[in-house]
Amino acid sequence: MATSTDQQSGRAGALAPRLPVPFFDLKAQFDGIREDLLDALAGVAESTQYALGPEVEAFEAAFADFVGARHCVGVNSGTSALHLALICAGVGPGDEVITVPMTFIATTWAISYAGANPVFADVDPVSYTMDPRQVERLITRRTKAILPVHLYGQPADLGPLLEIGSRHGIPVIEDAAQAHGAGYEGRGAGTLGLCGCFSFYPGKNLGALGEAGAVVTDDTRVADRLRALRDHAQSKRYHHDELGFNYRMDAIQGAALAVKLRRLDSWTEARRRLASRYLQALGDLPMQPPAEATGRRHVWHLFVALHPKRDLIRQKLEERGVQTALHYPIPVHLQKAYAHLGHRPGDFPVSEQIGRECLSLPLFPEMTAEQQDAVIAAVREVVPEISRARDTIDE
Ligand SMILES: Cc1ncc(COP(=O)(O)O)c(C=O)c1O
Q1: 199 CA from centroid of ligand 1 (Å)
Q2: Where among 226, 257, 288 does a domain terminate?
Q3: What is the Å distance from ligand 1's center to 132 Cα?
Q4: What is the pLDDT of residues 322-341, one digit of tens each?
Q5: Strand locations in 341-395, DSSP E?
Q6: What is the CATH number of the domain that holds 209?
Q7: pLDDT for 291-324, tens place per residue?
Q8: Where in the sequence is the active site (predicted)?
């Protein structure tokens, strides 16, 4: 997730000597869909139905169809989606949920909101997603769910994770917050586990005009419970069968998301083209490029390369007008909020290496060839020079 500073600043500084390239550009996206979006918003304003309602239902049906799930339940954020999905998986106080330390912290917030503790499996060094080989030994009597994260837009290795889960009777909940339209062996990310949880935060591949999220599932009973839970756990009006939440999706978000969903396939194709061009143009440089694992369809929410001198590269790119970001510099197990879990540096080496070395380059569907050329030229200028300097120091 980009920081709010990244989102607000939008474009790089005026002193930049070359074509400035923002990390992403929501204004360019808005300009491409202005008429349709404003019409949809006006329709909601006229309707006076502002929370849930027909606009949200229409979006839910369209998104379920898009990912290939039977049900979609719209909520007010990706974090809420994860929280409700975990409750439906039976996660409660004192339980454990296996997840990864290299993620945005909302993944583990949701576990904590359910009263459970995160138990970490490191990510694998190629896909940066949950390493299934680490999972089985972490399972205890208290394990109630496995929560892989489809990091940067690439699905985790769901086959072995589902197999381990089914052998132990433990559901898999997919954190698909960054993976709209991604795929695993031909199936839509989010549809293989008990539930798939999506975020529609504005900078996501499918972003609302504010906060929104959704859970998808094939299980009708789970879907019914999700619908109740997001709306104060009402089975019918003023009948509250369990602890509920106000996690409803706004109508305005449903309407905006429906407009954007119609463009998502073409936006994803643009992301995939840009990523493959970066891979071709930068593949020979001494930095570790991201990779699309066999059998997985990556939707390139983020293009993250690794280099030990990441901070210096970032600074030099900024001087050349190229805005970059970090996803994520501090893995969750080393966050102060989780100090009580007692982890130390060295516990999850792959996640820690990503934290130290990750650098996200600009990649968004509206990015022009000139903008991408400017990034490629700047990276090709900066990285070899900085890498040579490192070799000299190391010697
Ligand atoms: C991996 C991951 N999980 C969960 C979330 C939470 O989504 P939201 O910000 O919509 O609550 C995000 C989004 O920022 C995310 O990137």
Answers
A1: 5
A2: 257
A3: 22
A4: 999 999 999 999 999 999 99
A5: 358-361
A6: 3.40.640.10
A7: 999 999 999 999 999 999 999 999 999 999 999 9
A8: 204
Number of domains in the chain: 2
- Catalytic pick from 204, 260, 309, 316? 204
- How far is CA 378 from each of CA 80, 136, 318, 322, 360, rounded to the nearest angstrom? 39, 44, 10, 8, 14
The last residue of a domain, from among 208, 240, 257: 257
8 Å CB contact between 374 and 19? yes
Q: Known catalytic residue: 260?
A: no
Residue-number span of the structural domain to which 375 is assigned = 264-394
Same-domain status, 248 and 335: no
| 162 CA → ligand 1 middle, Å | 22
Give the number of the atom of ligand 1 that is nearest the alpha carbon of residue 200: 10
Ligand 1, pocket residues at CB < 6 Å: 1, 77-79, 103-104, 106-107, 149, 175, 177-178, 199, 201, 213
Sign of the C-alpha dihedral computed for residues 236, 242, 244 and 248 taken in this order: negative
Bridge-based pairing of strands 143-146 and 183-184 is: unpaired
297 and 227 in a common domain: no
What is the pLDDT at residue 8? 38
Give the type of residue at 26. Answer: L
CA–centroid distance, 326 to ligand 1, in Å, is 15
Ligand 1 atom closest to residue 201's alpha carbon, by position in its atom list: 10
